[in-house]
Each structure stands twice: as structure tokens, then as C-alpha cells.
Amino acid sequence: MVKKVAIITNGGDAPGLNAVIRAIVKTAENNGIECYGYIEGYRGLLENNYIKLDSRTNASGLLHRGGTIIGTSNSTNVFNLKCEENGQVVYKDMSQKCIDNIKEAGFDCIFTLGGDGTQKSGRDFSLRGVNVIGVPKTIDNDVAHTDITFGYNTAVSVATEALDRLHTTAASHHRIMVLEVMGRYAGWIALESAIGGGADVALIPEIPYDINKVADKVKERISEGKLFSIIVVSEGAKPIDGDIVIKRQLDNGKGLDNIRLGGIGERVAEDLERLTGLVSRCTVLGYVQRGGTPTAYDRVLSTKYGVKAMELAMEGKFNNLVTYKEGKLGYISLEEVVGENKEIGAASGNTAKSNIRKISMDDELVKTARNIGINLGI
């Protein structure tokens, strides 16, 4: 019987994280269950650093707050941790220490709030006897087996507002305005904000683009007397004859995504200025997309996710991910979420074996975009 649980928020922050925490805590308290939070994600689990969460004190007033009150980490793979010994870099499996910490604290279940990499580690812990329930979190909306992740709606809303503002500048100066948005391996934010913000072109990771096709779209608009164009580009978009643009390569350790993307928006802007003759400018939305107050939709969705996660724990349905498909909450095993990435301690997400959710060519968003004249670079 579940009496004591702990929450981990891991990976990039997302609007709605605090709302999930609040929902888990409130549901736990209403059922006589103690709730705790590990500080700074899996790092806190490794260092045995956790706090009591109470809806009357530190877990109160969280619905509108961005970020996460218990912190997060996206550079800690406890199954393959980067350490230094005698001046040499070595990698150690520190998962057993984490498991010992969980047992010593007496936690009956650990809630892992995160994306692909976070749930991969959650699956690995579940295989070693830890009761885990995952809650899908990523503004990229690319967690497998769930239609929408909390934080995504807020990110799309922010990107759409940015497009509204860029429209006025583009029209006033007869320019091409390029907006680079997040989306490493999936283009959900770019495509949906392009539709919502009236963009002319959307370039996404799933469809390598031909810059000449994009230029043709701009020239077509010029011939119609429309002397400006709006382009949305996912950070992970790439040309048909090239690859993703990497801003820098980190060295946080094996089993982590050490690639930092950035620069594709500037490249597209430069290419289009050369090909069309119109002045082109790029705006990189960056971390603005995932910070600040969540939308009402994300507050409600986050609350649903948190309540369902606690319900699964009380029902003893461990080692599953809470899902939201076709308007209904459900769950699926973490093993299925991980997909082909089976090896314990292997790369934590965003690899060729990752089971992330991408846009297919027959998706309704693609059909909608094409039917209203949005060019996809092909």
C-alpha cells in the first residue's frame, strides 16, 4: 500500500511542471499519503537531497508559476555518470546508490516528470525494482504514445504571439522575417504556430527542405504584390543536401544529448535574402517558449496528468507512463515508451533508437498547412 512517494522533475523546464507537482501533492494528501520532492532531478536522487512537499506551504500557489519549485537537471545520467579519478575522466554506474537512497527514505513510488531521456532512465530504474510512474513533459510534444504533453500549448501560444508581432514589422519594411523555434527532432511547435500565426512557410525536422522551393514561395508572394513573408523554422530543420546546424558540442557525459542546436534560422534568412533580394531578418525565440506562466489549457492538462499519476500509484499500476490519447487519460508501460532503446544505461533519448513522436506526412496538421498554402520546403 502506497504511503510515501517522491517526485522528480528532470530535463528542460516546461510550463505546467508546478501544476503537476501540485496535483500529485493534493491527491496524495487527500488519501493520507506523504509526498516529497527530489531537488534538481536525478542529481538530487543521487545526492539523496529531497524535501517534504505540503499543499499548505511550499506546494501552494503553484498553478500559475513557471519552472519547477524542486529544480531540474539535464546533465545527470546516473547509469553512466561522468566522474574524475586521479586526473582521468571515468564513467560509473551510480544507479545502485540511487536505489539505496530510495529504499532508505522509504519511498513506495517515484514519479518521473520528463521527456524521452527522463523516461528512459525511469524505465531503467523500474527494471531494477523501483516503482516508477512517468508523466510526459516536453514542449516539443514528442513523447511516444501520448497526443499532447503539458507545456506544449504554452510554447505554441508564445510562438504564435511572436509571429503576430513579426507580421507588423515584416509588412512595414517589406522584409522576410524568420522565426526560429524549439523542436530538435519534431516540428510540432513550428507547424502549429505557423498555422495559428499565419506564416507562409514552415520548415520542420521531419521534412528536409529545398531552399529554392522556399524562395519560389516568397517570389510568388512578391508577384501577387505581397512584399513580405513570414517563415517559421524548427531548430532541428535541415536542408535536403545538408545536416542540422550545431551551435556547440557539450561534454556532460555519455548517455546524454550533448548537442546544442542553433543557427538554422540565420542560415535560412541569409539564403533567402540572396535568392530573393528581399532583406531578411531572423528572430530566435529560444527559452522564452518554455518559461513563464502556463496557459489555462496547460494548467488543466497538468492537473489531469498529476491526478492520474497519483491514482495509478494508489492502484499499484507501476512502471507505466501516464498518457493522453483521443481526449482520454490512460497509461502505457515505460518499456513501450522507450521502444528499441533497450540497453540499461544507454543513450538517454534523442537517438536513432529513441521512440519519440514525430510528424508524419499524413498528419492532419500537414494536410491543413498545405491546404491553406503554407509551404513546407518541398
Topology:
Elements: E1 4-9, H1 17-29, E2 34-38, H2 41-47, E3 50-52, E4 81-85, E5 88-92, H3 95-105, E6 109-114, H4 116-126, E7 132-136, H5 152-173, E8 176-181, H6 188-196, E9 201-203, H7 211-223, E10 229-234, E11 246-249, E12 259-261, H8 264-276, E13 280-284, H9 296-314, E14 320-325, E15 328-333, H10 334-338, H11 364-371
Parallel strand pairs: 1-2, 1-6, 6-7, 7-14, 8-10, 8-13, 9-10
Antiparallel strand pairs: 2-3, 4-5, 11-12, 14-15
Helix pairs in contact: 1-9, 5-6, 6-11, 7-8
Walk me through what this model shows:
This protein has helices spanning 17-29, 41-47, 95-105, 116-126, 152-173, 188-196, 211-223, 264-276, 296-314, 334-338, 364-371; strands at 4-9, 34-38, 50-52, 81-85, 88-92, 109-114, 132-136, 176-181, 201-203, 229-234, 246-249, 259-261, 280-284, 320-325, 328-333. The mean pLDDT is 93. The strands form four sheets. A seven-stranded mixed sheet has the order 3-2-1-6-7-14-15, sandwiched between helices. Strands 9-10-8-13 form a four-stranded parallel sheet, sandwiched between helices. It has a two-stranded antiparallel ribbon with strand order 4-5. Helix 1 crosses helix 9, helix 5 (152-173) crosses helix 6 (188-196) and helix 7 crosses helix 8 (264-276). It has two domains: 4-150 and 294-338, Rossmann fold (3-Layer(aba) Sandwich); 156-291 and 361-371, Phosphofructokinase domain (Rossmann fold). It has 378 residues and is an alpha/beta fold. The protein is built from eleven helices and 15 strands. The relative contact order is 0.18. Helix 7 (211-223) links the parallel strand 9 and strand 10 (229-234).
